[in-house]
Amino acid sequence: MSRYFILLKRELWEHTSLFKLPAVFYLIVVLGNLAFGNLIQYVEFAPDGLQRGILRSAFGTVNSVAFIVFVFLAAFYLLDCLYTERKDRSILFWRSLPVSDTQTVLFKLVTAVIVIPIILWITLVSAHITILILQSILGTDGTGGFLGLLSLGRYWLNLALVLLVTMLWSLPLLCWLMFCSSWTNRTPLITVIAIPIVLSMIELLLPFELNLGGHMLSRLPFGFGNQGSGLDQLLGISALGTSDSNDLLRNIAEALSRVDVLIGLAISAALVTLTIQVRRWRDVS
Fold first, then answer.
1. Residue 97 above 70 pLDDT?
2. Which of 7, 142, 197, 271 could form a disulfide with 175 if both were Cys (CB 3.0 to 4.6 A apart)?
């Protein structure tokens, strides 16, 4: 257990944006509420049918912005995590410790797929609570009806479930980013983009269509691309409005039983295996 704690400390030490960026985002939420003020007045005077929608819209805006920011955080973390250790030669120090290449690679993937979403979830829950507290201070009347518009426990549970399935759906793309970080000598981002483009051009010469570009785009969060249409609503921010967590769980179970999800998991396992082998035998340059 202490070994994995050290690995976590290493990631936080080497990638300070993992905790600095959430702090900056939270500060922006606080300043935004103080600057743009009294949301509760719109809720109080809105028709009953619109009050819940206004509050969900306010939370949804915060969720959407945070999700986009954290997607970029996870992507650039994975692009940097194995490339930089070779570039600054710190890999020589870490290889001297009793931590295998498999443990190192898997923990970096866990950091992107689990730790960063947990940080995002905590940040969003804190932001939601802050919004409610600041709005209760800014509001002229009581906030009992305001707080009762959403079942916060259910809402936050739905948020955690959507984050979980989103990261699972995007896992092949995340593993591709990490593989490029371990393999390339210069600028992993160029490799990430260039190889799919080259493969797509080669595909034009084939007598059949593989649609590699569409498959890769479909793995982006929110189901962009023509292959991800079945998961669009599940992965979209609108899924957080689901009032019944059982319905959301049922939808997630159906989504995860799809063949393309299982194929994605197999591709992810292959990419992780390749990443481990590349890190093991890669010369430090």
1. yes
2. 271
